[in-house]
Automatic annotation (TrEMBL), chains A, B, C, D:
<dbReference type="GO" id="GO:0003872">
    <property type="term" value="F:6-phosphofructokinase activity"/>
</dbReference>
<dbReference type="GO" id="GO:0061621">
    <property type="term" value="P:canonical glycolysis"/>
</dbReference>
<comment type="similarity">
    <text>Belongs to the phosphofructokinase type A (PFKA) family. ATP-dependent PFK group I subfamily. Prokaryotic clade 'B1' sub-subfamily.</text>
</comment>
<feature type="binding site">
    <location>
        <position position="15"/>
    </location>
    <ligand>
        <name>ATP</name>
    </ligand>
</feature>
<comment type="pathway">
    <text>Carbohydrate degradation; glycolysis; D-glyceraldehyde 3-phosphate and glycerone phosphate from D-glucose: step 3/4.</text>
</comment>
<feature type="binding site">
    <location>
        <begin position="25"/>
        <end position="29"/>
    </location>
    <ligand>
        <name>ADP</name>
    </ligand>
</feature>
<keyword id="KW-0808">Transferase</keyword>
<dbReference type="InterPro" id="IPR012003">
    <property type="entry name" value="ATP_PFK_prok-type"/>
</dbReference>
<feature type="domain" description="Phosphofructokinase">
    <location>
        <begin position="7"/>
        <end position="284"/>
    </location>
</feature>
<dbReference type="Pfam" id="PF00365">
    <property type="entry name" value="PFK"/>
</dbReference>
<feature type="binding site" description="in other chain">
    <location>
        <begin position="218"/>
        <end position="220"/>
    </location>
    <ligand>
        <name>ADP</name>
    </ligand>
</feature>
<keyword id="KW-0324">Glycolysis</keyword>
<keyword id="KW-0021">Allosteric enzyme</keyword>
<protein>
    <recommendedName>
        <fullName>ATP-dependent 6-phosphofructokinase</fullName>
        <ecNumber>2.7.1.11</ecNumber>
    </recommendedName>
</protein>
<keyword id="KW-0963">Cytoplasm</keyword>
<feature type="binding site" description="in other chain">
    <location>
        <begin position="190"/>
        <end position="192"/>
    </location>
    <ligand>
        <name>ADP</name>
    </ligand>
</feature>
<dbReference type="InterPro" id="IPR000023">
    <property type="entry name" value="Phosphofructokinase_dom"/>
</dbReference>
Amino acid sequence: MAKKLQKIAVLTSGGDSPGMNAAIRAVVRSCAYHGLECVGVFRGLQGLIEGDFKMLDARSVKNLINRGGTFLKSARSKDFHEKEGREKAHLNLVNEGVDALVVIGGDGTFRGASIFIKEFNFPIVGLPGTIDNDIHGTDNTIGFDTALNTVVEAIDKIRDTANSHNRLFLVEVMGRDAGHIALNAGIGAGAEEILIPEEDMGKDRLIESLERSRKSGKTSSIIVVSEGDQIGKNIFELAEFIKTNMEGYDVRVTVLGHVQRGGSPSCYDRVLASRMGVAAVDALLDGKRDIMIGTQNNKMVHVSFEEAIKEQQKIDLELIRVADITSI
Amino acid sequence: MAKKLQKIAVLTSGGDSPGMNAAIRAVVRSCAYHGLECVGVFRGLQGLIEGDFKMLDARSVKNLINRGGTFLKSARSKDFHEKEGREKAHLNLVNEGVDALVVIGGDGTFRGASIFIKEFNFPIVGLPGTIDNDIHGTDNTIGFDTALNTVVEAIDKIRDTANSHNRLFLVEVMGRDAGHIALNAGIGAGAEEILIPEEDMGKDRLIESLERSRKSGKTSSIIVVSEGDQIGKNIFELAEFIKTNMEGYDVRVTVLGHVQRGGSPSCYDRVLASRMGVAAVDALLDGKRDIMIGTQNNKMVHVSFEEAIKEQQKIDLELIRVADITSI
Amino acid sequence: MAKKLQKIAVLTSGGDSPGMNAAIRAVVRSCAYHGLECVGVFRGLQGLIEGDFKMLDARSVKNLINRGGTFLKSARSKDFHEKEGREKAHLNLVNEGVDALVVIGGDGTFRGASIFIKEFNFPIVGLPGTIDNDIHGTDNTIGFDTALNTVVEAIDKIRDTANSHNRLFLVEVMGRDAGHIALNAGIGAGAEEILIPEEDMGKDRLIESLERSRKSGKTSSIIVVSEGDQIGKNIFELAEFIKTNMEGYDVRVTVLGHVQRGGSPSCYDRVLASRMGVAAVDALLDGKRDIMIGTQNNKMVHVSFEEAIKEQQKIDLELIRVADITSI
Amino acid sequence: MAKKLQKIAVLTSGGDSPGMNAAIRAVVRSCAYHGLECVGVFRGLQGLIEGDFKMLDARSVKNLINRGGTFLKSARSKDFHEKEGREKAHLNLVNEGVDALVVIGGDGTFRGASIFIKEFNFPIVGLPGTIDNDIHGTDNTIGFDTALNTVVEAIDKIRDTANSHNRLFLVEVMGRDAGHIALNAGIGAGAEEILIPEEDMGKDRLIESLERSRKSGKTSSIIVVSEGDQIGKNIFELAEFIKTNMEGYDVRVTVLGHVQRGGSPSCYDRVLASRMGVAAVDALLDGKRDIMIGTQNNKMVHVSFEEAIKEQQKIDLELIRVADITSI
């Protein structure tokens, strides 16, 4: 029979996202609530290997819920890809008396966790923490909502200047493989065009569409481009193409970059992270050992890691239609 | 057989909420997309009675998606409670050649709409526009998410000064009958206590809980109070009660008030409003004539007005537990 | 001859204001730059009496420049009004080996400092930290600019809802004795009327002016009221007076309250606080012992405490004229 | 004798900046206050040539004070560089019955205005509207303060992620010839290094300084780079140089770009713009015909165009010292 759960470790891994601190806080306080010990692991899976641990109690996580980033820091770990590294990590957990682990990160982190569980039969529960919202099995990831607001506020500012000068702006947003940020923020910002990796618009159709916009009386335009989009991948080249093919257009490029990862989390992300942190400890107490916490239909659900990493969250076709109609 | 749909009117009614402009914009552009005419009605149901109409095309609603409030303005209408008023309204619609109506507002608006539909057999589709999120049949109302962010940002600021002075703050938020804003924003702001109308905590239990917090080492506290809460209804009296019953506590009150209604809508509310606006015109084209558009499980759904107004959206008990655990 | 300066203490006192952390950070880093030791005093003058000290080095103040409030916390100290309290404070400073003190606060703090300097011949330099901008001898106080932005953003939100409903809003802002916040934020928010303690408008003139506004075609109005204003002191009474005397007006009241003290400081306040912190240590190194650092004509200046506390910063009549003209 | 002033035209020219709308509003309302007519010119000097005029009254400029950009739009005008273009412009002004012109823009605009005044003896008053704060004779330009807040908020977000990953970020800000934005925002954001065109640091000194930072215990760094800086001009090259010369550093680049031009103006910029707009009309009424309105020592002043364009506003050496000390 399994040992009774007494001590939980928590770490953040991969790219940071707003709400990770809120999630850590919820895990720590949920441990305190259930009379469990909680240990924080610094610098993600690499810190696990190096034994970079610190005990956390309910007061350790005060004034954190509104902070962007992750106070446990994050890091990519090459060592964790090696059996040797994972063995060290496991040994550290055992020596520290840790019975289970909560990992907050994206699909890369879950892949690593999945291997670790199989190798050492060690219970892990994952929380989806990434701005990209590309995790299968959860309607939302921690940080996605905040990133959308950040992007939309930035584009609102760019539109001020676009309107003042009758300009066309290409705005690159994050999303190497997934267009969720581009599509939602594009609708929210009232973008004239949205280019995402899931759909290949083609340069010629883009020009046609821009010509239609111009004829319909639009004097300035915002095109939101996902960094992984086929024709938008090299955004500066695309800008040149538009300049060459549309006379009299003043085209500018803005790459939003890392501002999208930071910032104080939105209320939605704080609540989602809090719920997920509580659900993670509940799940471990309930004997779960190989799952991600997700949100579906606004309820907390358990999704096997296998399910979570087998494919990427799909784009909602309804949203593409809404984008088309409302940008008319 | 019903006349083919050619002209739609749109209005906002009741308290304004952020995202109403985005919803109007989506209705107008969806009409343009489908080749329908669209007429805006100013000042809600009262404007319907007074015939305060204006034709709107796709360009009429540019640069509106990011604006708080409603450019069509809103108003409470006593006249619409009278048969005579409603008859005038109907006559105006008929004279204007309007075939169907989209109303954006709360349950009061839907009650009025419901009567109107029965009396004149006139097609109406409703969009839930209110910051209170108290409408049955939809997971979210337009404006709720923005209001939560506004409240959380305000409390973040208050916490700066609470922390600097070891003070206790009572913060009143909107929600006469429903605690949705208080509960979500309270979790998001890391409030120590949350008082909502759905649960009667009682003054004595509140004092006990505050004493426990103090003993656990907390030096400042935020209590979020829904304006309709039993013991929080008169927030200044409650503050006096705490001062009297807890020695050495510096207690302050902040009533957030109407800032909660305004502000540029969040990305979530802009996208929700856009989807709902598109779905409203789709529904009318599809022959629907007595429904509210809602969102359930992140999908657009049709909810009969009867269903929407029969009761208020319930508080999620999971959230109350999350609030309890994460404020430990 | 005076002992060579080796150790400086720093504290924040009175009401907190955004930028106080930036000022502390600059004092601490300036000490590190000059090879001086720096000790932080918690909870202001009361902490000085209770010996609540902590050594601070350059790294102790990282990630603080953008935080509202004061991490050294602040408190009002009755004990410091007594000779006995001040003697304890002095003894603590001597025992700790502190050679000089930097106090960040308002005129109350400076009055206390002034007495202390005379009694113990102990060097003190003050930094003006208050949102009210009511300190004589400096064009700006640390926190004023941030508070103005907070107020203006709040009123922008209120205006969304005021415009949507054709309403009149009374918005109370801080400023018990001084109208600086009301006057500047009132101009910045495009308020129709601004009521400040320095000018007694009288209720009748207010009504006349509102009638003129109404006739000129204004459909909604914002009146910014300083909490210390003659007719605005009881803002709810004033609202009733307007309702009684102006037919058909929907009048609402919002008291902005403590949100005005918090929030991440504006760039201006961060730079001002950084400059003043550096200037304070420079002044002490230069043998100054009884001055406040001020900013005049965008230069750092030395103002004797006597000068700083003898009267309050005056309202600029040019601003009153600008308010009158631009609200036409 | 000069004709009595009856009609004033106002335009915005060059790059847009936050607060331009507030300035236009103040000019328009000041005209209304003094009983003058006011005509808005769209698209700057090009619109002057093309006669793109519209009468503006006090109500035309409502709800504009909080909007970024310029509703009169702006444009660069090649035609205005030609005598022929200016003659058309003059003819349009005469035909429209305009007696004087207020131009809001940067030094390029003032140069054009200066020539126009000489050629046609036509009264022009300029307002400094640019985010760069590079105009001689005024302590602040309209839009500078807002841009600083925008930059500082963006870097706060980048620092969240920099701290979470122990990274070095190069952040490029606007300022082709002047380092005012970089220097002030760099201090405000707590940047470790600030590279400005006015000072050539040299790559080797930069590496030395970064090494010192690392030794002092800093684990992440922000370097703010003015786009016109010698070594920062090609920011991606500089990033490569740092990677090559500092082992184990994860270096990232963010180019903030056009978000810096937009956004709702800060309270400071709204008040400054309002004051300057009022002062412009005062100056014209007072017979001035060849000046820029500036702010010096927080007072409105008149600066001849000759003075304003003869050189660029200098960097304040005190600020460079404050940057050095507070980033220790």
